[in-house]
């Protein structure tokens, strides 16, 4: 019996060996890694061309005050009453700018005016009687003194009222109002209102480029304002500031009017130019990248003048080359 069992076991093992690994789980086949295709680089490019270019300095300015007129009280100190103008107002000679509080001066003037008229009538009557021999010299002298006294009082009040007013004596624009409020004490000699004269304005512009631009007094400038183009001349240069004189003045120009100023600095006829977006500078070296057969190649360049979008290239590339814009 044992012998039969052994034979059966041997037979079973032989079957297993004959079937090999067929009874084991089957492994998945290995997959090759995906192949990444190189993506073609897309460049924004532009062709090197020739054109006439002009380098110029563009400034934006406004007509400014060449001088200012300061208004202040000179006769007495008094509380402030009110301003009769606002900043930016146009004024003309005779316009009241500010008023001091000196009480009811107008009522005093009315009452004194009545007294003055009475004394004048009385004097005129006594004078007629005196000339007719009906009044004495004493009566005439008394009437004369009374009339003189009324006249002086009236004139004093008129002067006091006049001294309480700041009155413009030029045509211009109110530029500054001191921060006085009703009741504030105003001392003599302190500026209260500043006016700039309309007929005394100048055109000045400022830019950090002025000092390094090589500008000279007498250089040409083109003024653009209110739809007009007017020739002008550089009349003064101080630091980064420049003063421009127009060939003629527009009637519409006044304080604050805007003006664009184009000042030619240099020009190049038939220049080889490249878009300024294509130019890079590192350590004092300027270069562009050319696109040749789909490959970006770096080229050093020598630059000339620039104008707007374009920069003149003196050497390093050729007309028709394709440059890569950054």
The CATH class of the domain at 57-66 and 197-267 turns out to be Mainly Beta
Order of helices and strands: HEEEEEEHHEEEEEEEEEEEEEEE
Instruction: Indicate the radius of gyration in whole angstroms.
Output: 48 Å
What fraction of the residues are assigned to beta strands by DSSP?
35-45%
CATH fold category name of the domain at 57-66 and 197-267: Elongation Factor Tu (Ef-tu), domain 3
Q: Do you know the CATH architecture of the domain at 57-66 and 197-267?
A: Beta Barrel
Shape: rod-shaped
Helix content: 10-25%
Strand order across the biggest sheet?
2-11-14-13-12-15
Structural class: alpha+beta
What's the number of extended β-strand segments?
21
Itemize the secondary structure elements and their pairings:
Elements: H1 2-19, E1 45-47, E2 49-65, E3 68-72, E4 78-83, E5 90-91, E6 96-100, H2 105-131, H3 137-163, E7 165-167, E8 172-177, E9 185-186, E10 191-197, E11 201-206, E12 220-225, E13 228-238, E14 241-246, E15 258-275, E16 280-282, E17 285-292, E18 295-300, E19 302-307, E20 310-315, E21 322-324
Helix pairs in contact: 2-3
Question: Key terms for this structure?
Answer:
326 residues, alpha+beta, conserved putative lor/sdh protein from methanococcus maripaludis s2 fold, Elongation Factor Tu (Ef-tu), domain 3, six-stranded antiparallel beta barrel, four-stranded antiparallel beta sheet, 3 helices, disordered N terminus
Short description:
With 326 residues, this protein is of the alpha+beta class.
């Amino acid at each position: 019996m044992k012998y039969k069992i052994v034979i059966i076991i041997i037979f079973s093992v032989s079957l297993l060996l004959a079937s090999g690994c067929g009874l084991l789980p089957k492994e998945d086949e290995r997959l090759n890694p995906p192949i990444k295709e190189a993506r073609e680089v897309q460049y924004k490019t532009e062709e090197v061309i020739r054109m006439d270019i002009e380098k110029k300095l563009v400034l934006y300015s406004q007509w400014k005050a060449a001088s200012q007129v300061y208004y202040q009280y000179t006769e007495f100190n008094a509380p402030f009453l009110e301003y009769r103008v606002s900043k930016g107002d146009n004024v003309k000679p005779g316009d009241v700018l500010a008023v001091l509080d000196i009480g009811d001066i107008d009522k005093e003037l009315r009452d004194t005016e009545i007294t003055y008229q009475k004394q004048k009538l009385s004097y005129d009557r006594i004078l007629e009687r005196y000339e007719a021999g009906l009044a004495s010299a004493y009566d005439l002298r008394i009437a004369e003194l009374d009339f003189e006294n009324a006249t002086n009082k009236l004139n004093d009040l008129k002067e006091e009222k006049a001294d309480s007013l700041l009155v413009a004596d030029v045509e211009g624009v109110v530029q500054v109002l001191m921060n006085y409020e009703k009741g504030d004490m105003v001392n003599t000699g302190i500026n209260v209102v500043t006016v700039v004269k309309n007929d005394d304005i100048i055109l000045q512009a400022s830019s950090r480029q002025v000092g390094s631009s090589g500008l000279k007094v007498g250089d040409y400038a083109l003024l653009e304002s209110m739809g007009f183009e007017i020739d002008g001349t550089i009349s003064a240069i101080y630091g980064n500031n420049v003063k421009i004189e127009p060939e003629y003045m527009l009637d519409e120009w006044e304080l604050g009017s805007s003006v664009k100023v184009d000042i030619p600095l240099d020009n190049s006829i038939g220049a080889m130019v490249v878009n300024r977006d294509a130019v890079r500078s590192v350590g004092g070296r300027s270069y562009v990248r050319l696109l040749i057969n789909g490959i970006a190649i770096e080229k050093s360049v020598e630059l000339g003048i620039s104008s707007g979008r374009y920069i003149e290239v003196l050497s390093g590339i050729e007309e028709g080359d394709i440059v890569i814009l950054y």
